[in-house]
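As the next step, I selected for study a record pairing a protein sequence with its backbone structure tokens, which the following lines show:
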Amino acid sequence: MLTAPMAGHAAPQAAAPATAPAASAQQTAIQLLDRLDAGDFAAVEASFTDQMRQEVPADKLREVWQSLPQQLGAATGRGAPQTAEQGGYQVVMVPLMYEGGVILAQTAIDAEGRIAGFLLQPAQPAQAPGQAPPAPPES
């Protein structure tokens, strides 16, 4: 599926001294997803840090975003955003629901409100408290 091609997130630039407030970071991440859904890839790219613009130009972003429904079927909604501070960034995680599965969109936002990283990966199924992780398949 997708992981690295969308990541400036794996190594956002040097850690910023302060972070964007969580509510503002969530708003930025939701706006990013709304713009992606609307096909406004140039506006998304404009909200990136310089490093992200180099790593993920608008045409690459379009290619990856438009491949999701081809791989997973139609989008059916989004889950509630969650925010965590990581390495001087606010990282907003939003589950994206599709007919064929769930993708977790992770957006790293710097202290200036710019997108320093964006990662799409399959969401891990939730486990009940105290439940052991599933055993790997036997070969």
Q: What stands out?
A: Residues 66 and 129 are 36 Å apart (CA to CA). The first helix runs from residue 22 to 38.
